[in-house]
Amino acid sequence: MPDADLRPHRRGQVLREDTIFAVATAPGRAGIAILRVSGREAVHALQRLRGHGGAGPQPRRATLCRFRDGAGGVIDEGLFLWFPRHNSFTGEDVVELHVHGGRAVVSAMLDELSRMPGLRPAEPGEFTRRAFENGRLDLTAVEGLADLVAADTPAQRRQALRQLSGRLAGVYDDWTGRLTRALAWLEAEIDFADEDLPDGIGAATRTAVAAVRTEMAAHLADGRRGEIVRDGFSIAIVGPPNAGKSSLLNALAQRDAAIVAETAGTTRDVVEVRLDIGGYAAVVADTAGLRSGADPVEEEGIRRALARASQADLVLVLVDATDPGAAAGIRDRLRDAGVADMMVCANKVDLVALEGKSAIDDHAAHPLSVRTGAGMAELLAALAHRIADHVGKETEAPVLSRLRHRLAIEACVDHLSRFAGVTQPDLAAEDVRLAVRELGRITGRVDVEDLLDVIFRDFCIGK
Ligand code: GDP
């Protein structure tokens, strides 16, 4: 880890004029509703709601009280908590009001709060934005929080929690610190060329930068593990018309997501369903049937099916069990479209007599009947197994979870690769500076100049 001083600056406290409030719990009727108030007026607002009765609030302690309207009438009895600033979610004074979750209670509380001077309803995401601007969370933690709130599967939850706790930011801060130190030495070479700099500093700088670049490349070569966990493992179902693709998707989704029809070629667009398969998020897409001689609209569907299939993490080739030989041609077409990972299923085994089963085996196809449910459990288990293989063993090491991060790190590697081929210190410094900027964009900490100030103070060169 870098020295504390080399850590990117946290932004200073931003105390805004407005105190904001919002209901923190989901809308609708519930046992309890929590309202949150953040800002310099938060404690004052609390005291007004208590009718200015009772002692001042104790920090971080749940206290029972009666909340009153401006005329002194009781709105509800509930709990409040006060989180003093510096140690609160937003970095400002935060008050939480726990009331009964009826609509009339909540709206009376909101009415009361909106009548108070200096208070206004919060914009979407404004509490978290204040947390970011007050340096309580970096951008990767903000994203982790959003992912945690949206998490549907255990794997998503665990990954989001790791990101929220700052593990990913820790990696990026470490790289930022090391690159900034290298940058400072490069700048020193430029600015203080006539002065005595320690011997071998140029070589040490290059080694340090190369080490960061190697770590970044390893971070990128993760098989998109984090992104798959977050966005879902994508599975495209591809096969001839009428093989039962829409029926399979419906069976997986347990609701009617795609049209199932007796006439061939009804699924002209791509229909997607999000599923939890073995604890992982998966996005399953039903695509148009692959067949030639289709009308122009259907041809477009086929084109989309292939495009979609080539982007999928896995293609499920679904053929009719009465014609399992169709799988070979489809595999070739998919391979030409750049698809690497496929799994073949022969559907409608309920229509196939015993002797037909060996033909299915010959094509190494997974036997299935969407109609009777035969083979469905095995298919799901096989899919879960494939996803687990892709995602790899879950480790505690932070992983890239968003394309935004990936693109920024790729840009860093590009800058640092160019750095390796440059000899003039000013050009070399510029490449490192650009890499540091990219890292700063991931975490939202972009104060490179401030960092340089810190480092130059430590140098004591030339005063
Ligand atoms: P798609 O064109 O590949 O999407 O096929 P559909 O899902 O629309 O299904 C075509 C027809 O096959 C429909 O009439 C389904 O009811 C029928 N079908 C689907 N799965 C099975 C199955 O396992 N067994 C039998 N016998 N029929 C099925």
Structural features:
single chain; 463 residues; alpha/beta; Gyrase A, domain 2; Four Helix Bundle (Hemerythrin (Met), subunit A); Rossmann fold; 3 domains; six-stranded mixed sheet; 16 helices; 12 strands; 16% strand; flat; binds guanosine-5'-diphosphate
Structural commentary:
By secondary structure, this protein is of the alpha/beta class. Helices cover 46% and strands 16% of the residues. It is built from 16 helices and twelve strands. Helix 12 links the parallel strand 11 (342-347) and strand 12. The model is unreliable at 1-14 (pLDDT under 50).
Terminal-residue CA separation = 28 Å
Q: What is the averaged pLDDT score?
A: 84
* pLDDT < 50 runs, ≥5 residues: 1-14
Largest sheet: 6 strands, mixed
Question: What does the oligomeric state look like here?
Answer: single chain
